[in-house]
Amino acid sequence: MASEGEIFRLSGPVHLTVVDWNNIHHRRSIAASLVNGVYILEFDRQQNRHGSQALALPWWDFFHFKLNQVLIDDVDSSIFGAIFEYKYPSPTPKIPQYVIAFRGTITKSDTRSQDFKLDLQCIRNTLHQSSRFQLAMQYVQYTVGLSRGASVWLAGHSLGSAMALLVGKNMTKMGYEGGNFFTL
């Protein structure tokens, strides 16, 4: 059974019917909604919710994003991230064409073991050695290549925040510029 926090109309920022992309609080709320959408994608997977029973879609659709790709961990097959694309051409750099969002640690049985291992790697400063990080880097590099200079955001919460920051740091070292990062 779904918790209230998983249902967008009960817990999402439904008051943001008109988004001011110049307002940092609006941008942060949207980034948080996309990250929460990744959590809900994983909960939908764990609870076998499909079609009309799935709860994740409104978390990005409300803000005119579409889901381009789910990022699946090759160790535990969990969804750890997603690539979202804005449905319309961005008229301003404040509106991201792509958002790559990463979830944090989930303590449910399907994901707990791998997520805790990655938490420890984060503490030991070895997260960059994980296969999840390597996958994240590949997807971010690919998406930045597709973007043709359009704005790409990286967003994450908890472990996902560490992933977003580390990926962004490595992208900068590789010569990519202008990334936007939201850590929640």
From TrEMBL:
It holds the Pfam family Lipase_3. Residues 143-175 form the Fungal lipase-type domain. Keywords: Hydrolase. One of its GO terms (molecular function) is hydrolase activity. GO terms for biological process: lipid metabolic process. InterPro entries: AB_hydrolase_fold, Fungal_lipase-type. This is Fungal lipase-type domain-containing protein. It comes from Fagus sylvatica. The lineage of its organism: Eukaryota, Viridiplantae, Streptophyta, Embryophyta, Tracheophyta.
